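Our preliminary data section would be incomplete without showing what the modeling component actually yields. Below, a chain of 157 amino acids is followed by its predicted structure, encoded as tokens that our downstream tools consume directly.
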Amino acid sequence: MGHFEATLGVLLTPQNAPILTALLERAGDDRSVVSLAKTFWGTKRPYIGKDASPICEVKSAHLAGNPDYPSGHSAFGGHVAMILAEVVPARADALYARGREYAESRWVCGSHSVSAAEAGLRSGEVIYAAEHRSEAFQRDIAMARAEVAAVMAAAGK
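Predicted structure:
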């Protein structure tokens, strides 16, 4: 949740937002959905074979062996942004923008292609839409909304 601290104006943690933390831990598994697509497409990352191309993280065998398309980080960023926007609707526009910025950082960084970042965002949207059909998810969102409102009020936000 630290990636959204500046947008929310408060740091949400497992200690001050245990309901939201549990919701995010139970939320749709971005990794399994994205992993299926990565395995299917098997697209190499854009820097592979271009030793001079800098990226903003360590070029490791693990990173190189993890296909480009779609970006799991982008799926995560977009997905969490949508959940937080529902929990804190007054900051929805800024949260959506932060989720997109998080996704775009993956291609700006050089770790992913633009299309991989966009596909990651779409993956996060699909996961979120599927979750929204669950009564348990709806209940958890309502409880998280009340919890986060109390944390933000206590912080004067």
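The first helix runs from residue 5 to 8. Residues 2-154 form a domain with the Vanadium-containing Chloroperoxidase; domain 1 fold (CATH 1.20.144.10). Preliminary results of this kind motivate Aim 1 of the renewal.
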